[in-house]
From TrEMBL:
Name of this protein: DNA-binding transcriptional MerR regulator/DNA gyrase inhibitor GyrI
SMART domains reported in the protein's UniProt record: HTH_MERR
CDD domains registered for this protein in UniProt: HTH_MerR-like
Positions of the HTH merR-type domain: 5-74
Assigned keywords, A-Z: DNA-binding, Repressor, Transcription, Transcription regulation
Lineage: superkingdom: Bacteria
Organism: Paenibacillus silagei
């Protein structure tokens, strides 16, 4: 690995990567190779080798290509830390989903054990299983509780009769120009003056997580979101109705209650397949909570 230039064959052997994988990463724009005139082989200089080693490590962590691109563009430890934090959070969410699935399976198994005299699948059994597993299909989604870390964010607030896009647009333009779009988490929320009636201006703030060491330009401001426990519910097209559902569920929760000392948030999650949905972003509603 101390040679200035190596071929694709040598690189495949040294790093245990297939030439097909290397070509795919290059096609994604993560690095560039050169062609050796005599043989036609792809070769890689020291900069490309560094990019490949970083990419190989981050892909082992199952970090998406678009986030790896942000790390390579900045070559910055703070950006690398943000990417790894994002991955940890994704694993936490996945773990919570697995735990919920385990609980549902145990509910069904307990019901089957109490009905062990039955030898055929009957209507009552089907109904019980549907009650446990089909709540999302029937529109009866229930909230999950997640933990958000403390986050440094840049934010922009607009007061208008329809302020959401005006608050989000400048933030997105800056993130793209600063090559932070692949790592930033995006959060929005109503601000004073709060929405009252149709046609009246109200406030909406949009914020994006940023690594330490990144300066926040005007007209944006900087703040720290405290993190902690949040009740999370994926929103339907009726955002107001989804918020009502979340708050109604919290009102009947025996374990959690709202924490009014922190901001409620709407996380904007890029929809990678927006065709037919009409939305570039999906929304997850986040209400801060504490244990009762």
């Amino acid at each position: 690995m101390n040679r200035t230039v190596v071929s694709i064959q040598q690189l495949s052997e040294q790093l245990g990567l297939t030439s097909r994988t290397l070509r795919h990463w290059e096609a994604e724009g993560l690095f560039q190779s050169k062609r050796e005139v005599s043989s036609g082989w792809r070769t890689y200089d020291e900069h490309a080798l560094k990019c490949i080693r970083i990419t190989a490590l981050l892909r082992r962590m199952d970090i998406p290509i678009r986030e790896i691109q942000a790390v390579l563009d900045k070559s910055s430890v703070p950006v690398l830390k943000q990417v790894i934090q994002n991955r940890i959070l994704a694993l936490q969410v996945h773990q919570e989903e697995l735990e919920q699935m385990g609980q549902q399976l145990h509910q069904v198994l307990d019901y089957l054990n109490t009905s062990n005299k039955r030898t055929s699948i009957q209507e009552e059994l089907l109904s019980e299983m549907e009650n446990v597993f089909m709540s999302n299909v029937t529109g009866q989604s229930t909230f999950k509780v997640i933990t958000l870390p403390t986050m440094r964010v840049a934010f922009h607030i607009v007061v208008d009769v329809s302020p959401e896009d005006k608050a989000m647009g400048p933030i997105m333009d800056w993130l793209e120009s600063a090559k932070l779009l692949g790592t930033a988490r995006l959060f929005g929320g109503n601000m004073k003056p709060m929405p009252s009636s149709a046609g009246k201006p109200y406030g909406y703030g949009m914020c994006a997580t940023i690594p330490e060491g990144i300066s926040v330009p005007e007209p944006f401001k900087e703040m720290t979101l405290p993190g902690g426990l949040y009740a999370k519910l994926d929103s339907s097209e009726d955002i107001g109705g989804s918020w009502k559902t979340l708050m109604d569920q919290l009102a009947h929760s025996q374990k959690y209650r709202s924490d009014r000392s922190r901001l409620c948030l709407e996380e904007h999650i890029r929809n990678d397949s927006p065709a037919g949905s009409g939305n570039l972003y999906d929304l997850s509603l986040l209400e801060p909570v504490v244990l009762k």
